[in-house]
Write a structure and sequence with these properties.
Layout lengths: L11 E6 L15 E2 L2 E2 H9 L6 E5 L3 H4 L5 E3 L9 H11 L4 E6 L7 H9 L7 E5 L2 E10 L3 H9 L5 H6 L4 E5 L12 H6 L1
Helix pairs in contact: 3-5
């Protein structure tokens, strides 16, 4: 086990905000308002103290995301090819050995869960939240060293982050089925209900 708890700059953090937002009617999910603030602001507040390398993957509205990140990155492709494209772009930019990947529409993520992920860093194996037996790719810790292997899988046509990481001794961080910290605010109806 690699204990990183004493190093405030122990990882790069990548917030994925580059999707089409189809379930949000095409809105940019990270900028959707909840309780008067954009969703990305909640994640920023939680992760900002944990890194000196905060990256946001976004394919539009870069001017609005700039204040929430140290650096922005966009997909190499222009057709919103999915989260793996954002992860590849973020890994290529990351300064640290580990990259914590989080979705922009999960504003309830908290520091204790992030600390669990970070303290689970070990060797070159990625770590991903598993909720009641279901993998949650948008809550992952990935070694930067995997970039060449992930890019090779991409070049061979793979587009699933989960399938790629399963090829590299993916380990699970188990969370309960009703863990509200993992809620994705990814539809207008869900936002209203919350």
């Amino acid at each position: 086990m690699h204990d990183t708890s004493t190093d405030p700059n122990r990882c790069s953090i990548l917030l994925l905000a580059g999707g089409r937002g189809q379930r949000m009617g095409g809105q940019d999910k990270g900028l959707v308002q909840w309780n008067g603030r954009p969703l990305i602001a909640y994640l920023h507040d939680t992760v900002r103290p944990l890194t000196d390398d905060l990256i946001i993957s976004c394919n539009r509205n870069q001017d609005r995301y700039q204040s929430f990140a140290d650096r922005l990155v966009s997909d190499e492709q222009l057709d919103f090819p999915g989260p793996l494209a954002g992860v590849l772009a973020g890994l290529a930019l990351a300064h640290h050995r580990w990259v914590l990947v989080l979705a922009c529409d999960a504003p309830r993520i908290d520091r204790p869960l992030i600390e669990q992920l970070l303290n689970g860093a070990s060797g070159t194996s990625p770590l991903m939240v598993q909720q009641a037996g279901q993998w949650q790719p948008m809550f992952s810790l990935i070694p930067s060293a995997l970039l060449p292997a992930l890019r090779a899988s991409w070049d061979q046509g793979e587009r699933s982050l989960l399938r790629v990481l399963l090829q590299h001794d993916l380990r699970a961080l188990d969370c309960a089925a009703d863990d509200l910290r993992l809620t994705n605010f990814n539809s207008p109806d869900l936002l209203k209900s919350l």
